[in-house]
Amino acid sequence: MQVTELENSGLKRNYKVTVGAPEINAQMETELKAAGENIRIPGFRPGNIPMKILQQRFGKSVQGDVLKQVINKATTDLVNERKLRPALTPQINIEDYQDGGALVFTVNFETFPETPEVNFDKITINRSVFEITEKDIAEAEERIAERSPKLAPAKDGAKAESGNVLTIDFKGMIDGVAFQGGTAEGFKLELGSGQFIEGFEDQLIGAKVGDDRIVKVTFPKDYPGAEVAGKEASFGVKVHAIEVKQPGKIDEEFAKDRGFDSLEKLREAIKTQLVREYDQVVRNQVKKDLFDVLEEEYNFDLPQGMVDMEFQSIWERLKEAQAQGDESVAGKSEDDLKTEYQKIARRRVKLGLLLAEIGNRNKIQISREELTRAMMQQASQYPGQEKKVMEFYRNNPDRVEELRGPILEEKSVDFILDKIKFNDKKVTLEELNGDDEDENEGSGGKNKKSAKAAKPAKKALESAETEDDSEKKSAAKKKVPSTKE
After folding, report:
1. Which of 28, 4, 245, 49 is nearest to 146 (CA)?
2. What residues contact 422, with CB distance under 8 A and at least 6 apart?
3. All domains of the chain in start order, with CATH
4. HSE toward the beta carbon, residue 407, CA cutoff 13 A
5. What is the DSSP letter of 118?
6. What are the angstrom distances between the C-alpha of 101 and each of 192, 312, 399?
């Protein structure tokens, strides 16, 4: 093998490689002999077919695989001999090859950069320190109560308002004929919930108990039920009851309804959840500040190919979000957006490389258990298909390897946070929630999200409906085509 260096500039490398005919022919013979062991040709025993005949009959069919093997081996030898680290898969371009002759091809790639050593002793980050107060717990209880209202009968003669829950009978007709699923009795409907198709609930505003109303609506043209899609329907509605929502009372009974032994146990659970959620808010803030320091203080060349790939990934997700109606970037020109997201792509690549190198230099390991947890977490995002997702990972080890990056990043961040210094400042939960941005950035790409998203105790304690209400709504969706799917 003969190698000529064509380019060695920054991270860019380009080589011209020539593999002699004898090496290629030897590999061809090896492949043809292996094939000849299992081939039957009249007049010859398997394994004793002359090479000339094998070449004539099967030379072209194995040539492609042989050339691929030769190129892969030559490229691997080149990289290993020169102790190079390609950042991405090398680009191969065959320059010259004739049957029986030498192979000439070029290898073009960018190498990983040499990242600087991070001096942890020189990094100091501001850190918020909070304490959960009785006031914080009481406010969380109030929010839970607001999400868990009780229903009480409206005053005699009251007119239905948005937010009221009506108990109704209804029967739908199209061209004077009742249609399947358009009838129900004793159905509970919250006005303003958007559970029924547009216009239905609005026409019940102002109704009183005992009223009979005719509600006219038009089903959307893209409605799932073909027999009613795009058609006008008339519903006869009888109002049996009107109920108003009242905040639930936080007491022992309320706690037991939510699966807790006592009100004190409920309050303990609220505090635990608040600590967990606001610990994450603080970590996100510290992580963002750490990334800012690393980006500003440590500079090195970046493989442009990696930056381009990261930008393309971000840009495709942005376009998908816009296609689905996301208007978060409305008013910005495409050129401005590309400039902004190019910067984000560079930041992500830079911090990703730096964190990965910190992990490698400090021998941070990823256990099989951590990879399994990551796979299970991915699988949990596809309810009902968890087994298929786990099977996919078992059958595609390379996709499992893709999970290592995020895990290594988080472990590297934890390693750094254990080494650096902090300026602690006591803050209230209100101050933590008041930040304009929660920059939980992964490898440094800015994802602007409100820190107010950390709703106290929502995961463990949220229960706005009783089981009975949930079951009725679920059943209604199955049998009433006027509800939104």
Report:
1. 245
2. 124, 125, 126, 127, 286
3. 2-110 (3.30.70.1050), 150-246+465-479 (3.10.50.40), 262-454 (1.10.3120.10)
4. 19
5. P
6. 78, 40, 39
Sort strands 177-190 and 165-174 into parallel, antiparallel or unpaired. Answer: antiparallel
CA distance linking residue 402 with residue 320, whole number of Å = 22
Structure tokens at 38: 């299992």
> Which helix or strand (DSSP H or E) is residue 66 part of?
helix 51-81
Cα angle value 477/480/481 (rounded, 5°): 100
Residue 417 identity (one-letter amino acid): L
Query: Which DSSP string corresponds to 240-261?
Result: EEEEEEEPPP-SHHHHHHTT-S
What residue type is 125 in one-letter code? I
Handedness of CA 177, 180, 186, 188 (dihedral sign): negative
Is there a contact between 165 and 247 (Cβ–Cβ < 8 Å)? no
Phi-psi domain of 175 (left: phi exceeds 0; alpha: psi -120 through 50; beta: other): left
Residues near 108 by Cβ (< 8 Å), separated by ≥ 6? 7, 12, 13, 14, 15, 90, 91, 93
CA distance 474 to 134: 38
Q: What is the pLDDT along the chain (485 residues), one digit of tens a residue?
A: 899 999 999 999 999 999 998 888 788 777 776 665 666 666 566 666 666 666 666 656 677 788 888 899 999 999 999 999 999 999 999 998 888 789 999 999 999 999 999 999 999 999 999 999 999 999 888 888 887 788 889 999 999 999 999 999 999 999 989 988 889 999 999 999 888 888 999 999 999 999 999 999 999 888 877 888 889 999 999 999 999 988 778 888 888 888 899 999 999 999 999 999 999 999 999 999 999 999 999 999 999 999 999 999 999 999 888 888 788 877 888 899 999 999 999 999 999 999 999 999 999 999 999 999 999 999 999 988 899 999 999 898 888 888 988 999 999 999 999 999 999 999 998 888 875 344 444 454 444 333 333 333 333 333 222 233 333 333 333 233 343 43
- Is the CB of residue 4 less than 8 Å from the CB of residue 15? yes
415 CB-contact burial (10 Å; exposed 0-12 / middle 13-18 / buried 19+): middle
SS3 assignment, position 226: coil
DSSP 187: E
Q: To which residue do tokens 């029967």 refer? A: 171
CA 214 to mean position of chain CA atoms: 46
Question: In the Cβ-directed half-sphere of 163, how many Cα atoms lie within 13 Å?
Answer: 10
Question: What's at 324, amino acid-wise?
Answer: Q
Query: CA–CA separation, 52 vs 393, rounded Å?
Result: 45
